[in-house]
Amino acid sequence: MAFFQSIFYNVLLQFKMSLSRPMYRFTLIVSPIVNTMLIFEMFRKSNVSDAANYIVFGSGLMGLWSSITFSSIGDISRERYIGTLSTVYVAPLNFNLTIFYRIIGNTILSSMAFLISIISAHLFFKISMPIYHKYYFIISFIMIIVSFSIISMPISYLMLISRKSSLYMNMIEYPIFILCGFAFPTNKLPALIRFISYVLTPTWTTKLLHESLHKNLDIYQINHAFKETILLNLIYCLFILILWKHIDSQVRKNATLEVV
After folding, report:
1. Quick one: pLDDT at residue 228?
2. What is the distance between the alpha carbons of residues 190 and 204, in angstroms, rounded to a whole number?
């Protein structure tokens, strides 16, 4: 019981901390609206059959990833800047749990970007997205939350050993938009770049989401995307365990938690 209370209060605290920052509110509210308009212009004269999916949910995914990048991953940079990163690192509560709670809290809160995108698409462009297969849609949405949380962990760890975290945060935002098919299908990418896309879990969760929105459900594609997502998440979890041992050693050796 105490464990779940710890999760609840840490996640609730992260909600309050994130919403108190103007940049986060802009990323959460304004960014999905702007992205909806931009993606609509991209697809306005295209013949892509599921363009509405990208207009509505592509902008939501972009807003979700931006919020995670500048909040969950950015927490490392903020803690370092205000001089509390070393204190958090050695606090009684395991540092991995602290980061994981924050990432979970921000990912859940940032999922509001989907709602904002849906409302924006309906208000500005009269686009409505009927959900024909609610069960598969809910599963895909849960997988998005889980997968985005998992992929954020190793990136947060890497921020511990560099004081240029703000630079790296800005570098990872748009490549993920492109590589993972948020704004357009990944089959439009060159073959070599597509290979990189296939080792990123957001690519498969995005595919899972789009497949769940089709009126004529392709069970094979759904199962394939689901299996790939599970497999990659397990590989990422193993990678996190290995990476953490190395990061912890480097942090203690090089003392990279302070501002200078």
Report:
1. 93
2. 17
- Specify the pLDDT at position 259: 67
**What's residue 233's pLDDT?**
94
Q: Would residue 259 count as lying in a domain?
A: no
Asked if the structure places residue 215 within a domain, the reply is: yes
Report which of 65, 23, 63 is spatially closest to residue 39, judged by C-alpha positions. 63
Domain enclosing residue 109, as ranges: 2-254
For residue 203, what pLDDT is reported? 92
- Distance CA(96)–CA(107), nearest Å, equals 16
Which of the residues in the chain have pLDDT under 50?
none
In a domain, 247, yes or no: yes
pLDDT of residue 72: 67
Pair of tokens at residue 160: 């511990």
Residue 197 to residues 109, 154, 203, 237: CA-CA distances in angstroms? 26, 17, 6, 18
Q: How far apart are alpha carbons 101 and 122 in whole angstroms? A: 33
Structural domain count of the chain? 1
Whether 260 is in a domain gets the answer no
